Amino acid sequence: RFLPALFLLLLLAGTVAAYFKNSQETAIAPVEDLEALEFLSFQPEQVRSIRISGGNDSVTVQSKDNVWILPESHGAYASRQTVIEFLTQLSRTRPLRTLETADEDTLKKLNLSKDPAAKLGNGAGINVELSGENGTLITKFTLGKAHIRRENGALNQDNKIAYDGRYIRFDKKDGKPVIY
Question: Which of 128, 131, 132, 149 falls 20 to 30 Å from 39 in CA-CA distance?
Fold first, then answer.
C-alpha cells in the first residue's frame, strides 16, 4: 500500500540531491543571501512531518514515537533510514546560483507557479513542507523543472554531464519568490 508514497519520497530525495550536488564549475559563486540560505538550515532530527504534494496528489510522512509512518496509507511504515537520509541530504544542500527574474511567465516555464490554474508539470511543481513539533512549519519550497546543461546549443548525450539539477522556488517572508 505504501510503495507509491515510498517511491515518491525516494524520487524526491534523488531529485533534491541531484539539484544541489556541486557541479565542479568554478564560475558559479555560492548564494550569499542569508534569508535565502535559511530555508534549508534545519536539523533533521527537528522534523516530525514531511508533506510532498503536486497537483491533486500528496503524501505525508510523519514521525510517531521515532517510527516514520504514512498516515494516508492507514499508518503504513516508511523506511526510517530513507527518511533520515533524505532529511540529512536536504539539510546539507546549498543553492548554486540565483535566477534574477521571477515574473509569472518565467515561473510557469520552470514549473514554479503558484497559480491555482497551473497543472503539475505544466506550470506547477512539487511542493515540499517540513514541520516540527506540534506542526510548526520549519520550511517549505517548490521543486520545478530539471535544468539541462547544453554544450554548443546541443544537449549533451551523457546524462551524468547534461543533467544539472532542478529549479527550486523559495518565498521570502515578504512574499517575493526567489528562484535557484
Answer: 149
Question: Residues with Cβ < 8 Å from 85, sequence gap 6 or more?
Answer: 13
Query: Per-residue pLDDT tens for 7-66?
Result: 566 556 555 555 554 443 333 445 666 665 666 778 999 999 999 998 888 899 999 988
Pull the grid cell for residue 132.
516540527
Q: Do 48 and 63 touch, CB atoms closer than 8 A?
A: yes
Beta bridge mates, 166: 146
pTM of the model: 0.73
pLDDT by residue (tens digit) across 84-96?
A: 998 998 888 777 7
Strand order in 49-54's β-sheet? 76-77, 67-70, 57-64, 49-54, 126-131, 137-148, 163-171, 177-179
Under 8 Å between Cβ of 9 and 70: no
